[in-house]
Structure formats: structure tokens, C-alpha cells
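Possible regression after last week's pipeline update?

I re-ran a chain I had predicted before the update to compare outputs. Posting the input and the new output here so someone can diff against the archived version. Not blocking, just want to make sure nothing changed silently.
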Amino acid sequence: MKVSLEDIKKARETIKDIINTTELSHSISASKLLGSEVYFKYENTQRTGSFKFRGAFNKISNLTAEEKSRGVVASSAGNHAQGVALSATLAGVKATIVMPVNCSISKASATRSYGAEVVLKGEIYDEAYEHAQSLEKQFGYTFVHPYQDPFVIAGQGTIGIEILEKIPDLDCVIVPIGGGGLISGVALAVKSINPKCRVIGVQSDRSPGMACLYNKQTVDQAKKRAATIADGIAIKNPSALMYENFISKYVDEVVTVSDDEIAEAIVFLMERTKTVAEGSGAAAMAAAMHRGLNLGKKCCVIISGGNIDLNIVSKIIDRGQILRGRLCELSVIVDDLPGNLSRLTSAIATEKANVLEVRHDRVSQGLSLRETRIDFTLETTSIEHVERIKRALEATGAKII
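New output (post-update):
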């Protein structure tokens, strides 16, 4: 499979009147945090909420009339599904999308709203992919692969051209990796235009297949679901074809990040850049924040998608705030005597923390008859602030657990 810079330029002409040329914005707060001039490429504001629309529209636009008449089928955890659904609708083509049974409800609903038939099958993406292939054979559909397709890769690569048109002297671009279509297209475009620009790929440590392949580590082939907030890049088995043809040739480094690190990045993006990113969309920022990467003087972080499940937003915010020291949950054991709660809250007030919630527990296992456990949820300012509060509580005689 071959893709050239000329293919990416052709893709740009094909999709330019349909896609959003998304904003590329300098972030003062991220630049101060990371010690480099940081720019964000906001593909979370793309039509359908992710970069996937680019590749899907380019692919369907290049189908023959006969291929379009048979309808298309695709497999996706969510974003490719929406990209194919909208692209097919715009082209007047019937679309069937296979999604894992535990995919985001909001992404499945959005896919239907764009005009596709949704089939739920399999615990992980790989199983949904296998079922989509069986439907292709059974009904004669044209398969639209989420990443292993030259037209899809070329469509995603248009992001690389847009970035370097604005920042030709870019030193580094950080890109999330699921199947590898985005990083393959972007890396090919970037290296063709500015070979000195480093390309860094990021995967979830819950599904690190491509990172293992790139770093010459054993790839876990177990067929089990990877529970991660970065569901959009949770592909268990990496594509050797994508690795050999693109990632091994054009990518300089591949790292992994944890769900906690992604949650912290999501909260940072919400608070400081006023943008909403889903787990996979914030993975590149998580790597920039936590992996000590060589960013150079100018760095671009691709925010690849914003289709976050609203049911988990509050959990992600709370987790991110805790990791940043902005929210604290701690428990203490004290003697069950009048005035102890007052002494504890006074110590907290002295340290200028805000009490959000208090809970008494006198019956938990491990407590003596004259002891009580008190759980606090506090609004704090930093990890150091939390440590000062702990010391202040211990000074009252409380035992922190």
C-alpha cells in the first residue's frame, strides 16, 4: 500500500469544500507548562466531532458508481462511524456501521442521526471489524476501512499540510494512534514537507499494540476488551501493514499514557483552552504533559476528537482535579467526642481549603467503640496544599487513613 504527498494534495482538493479547515491556535498556558511554543490543532471541532470525517469523505468520494450502488459497510468504536455515516449521506450512499456492543451510546446515536444503520457486535473493535467483513461478503457492500486504506490515509494527511502551512518551521507534532491512519497520513505529509520535524505517536497503555510493535516489545494478542476512557484508540491488535509502510518509516517515537494522565489532560484543556476533548482526543496532550518529550521550540498537539460521553464527564473532571491537587478526598479517624469535628474543620479553614462534603462513619469494621471515621471532600489549590492540610489535621490528633 502506497500513499504519496501528491495523493494527500489530491485529497485536499477533493474535501476542501466539505470539511472544516480547523483552527490552529497558540496556547500561552500550555507553552508555559511545557517549555515550548505549543499550538493546538482542534480536530474536535471538525464536522462529526473528529478528524475521521476527512478520510471517510475522501474514500467515499473516490468510489466508483458501481461501488456506491452496493452501499458501504464500516466498523468503528465511534468516530469513524460518524464520519462514514455523514459522508455516505452526502454522497447518497447507503451505510451500515458495525460498532462494539459497549461503545459510547452517544456515538452510536450520533451515527444513526447521520443516516447510517448501526449494528452492535463484539466486545472490542477487532470483533466488530470481523463482523463488518462478514457483512461485506454476505451483502456485497463496499468496505470502508477506518485506517488501512490509501484514500483514508490521504484524507487524514491533509491535517499535516494545514499545520505546516501555518507553522513551516515546526519542530514536533504529537499525534494519537489507534489503528494508525491519522499518524500515517500526518507523518507522511510532515516528513515530505519538513523532514526535520519530529513526529511522536501516543497510545493508551490499556491497548499499546502499536507502541509495542514500534519499540520491539511483545504484543499481547489476547482477545479481551480494554477498559479505557480512550476508547477511540483502543485497538487491541496492531496492523503490521500500517507499521511497515508508514509508522516505522515516518514516526520518530511512540509512547503510551494512562487513563489518569488522559483525564488530567482533558481537565487542563477544558479549564485553560476552553475546549472539550474525548479520551483519545486528549491523549497527545497527556503525553506532552507527562512523558518529558523533546518538543523543540515549536510543537503542535493534535486534539483529534471531541465526542466525549457526557455520562463520564463528571467522573473525568473529578479524577483530573484530584490528580492536579484541585480536589481532595481524605479520611481521618478521631475519638468520638464533642468538639472534634469543629477542631478538624477549623484546621482545614486555617489552611484556606473549602469543605465540599463531610460524612461521619461510626460503624465501619476496624473502628473501636469510641472512634469515628470522618470523610472529607475538599476544594484545594495544589498537591502541596493537600499535604499542608494533612499535616494540620494530624496536629489535632487525627489519624489520616
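Follow-up from reviewer: compared with the archived run. The chain has a mean pLDDT of 94. Marking as no regression found.
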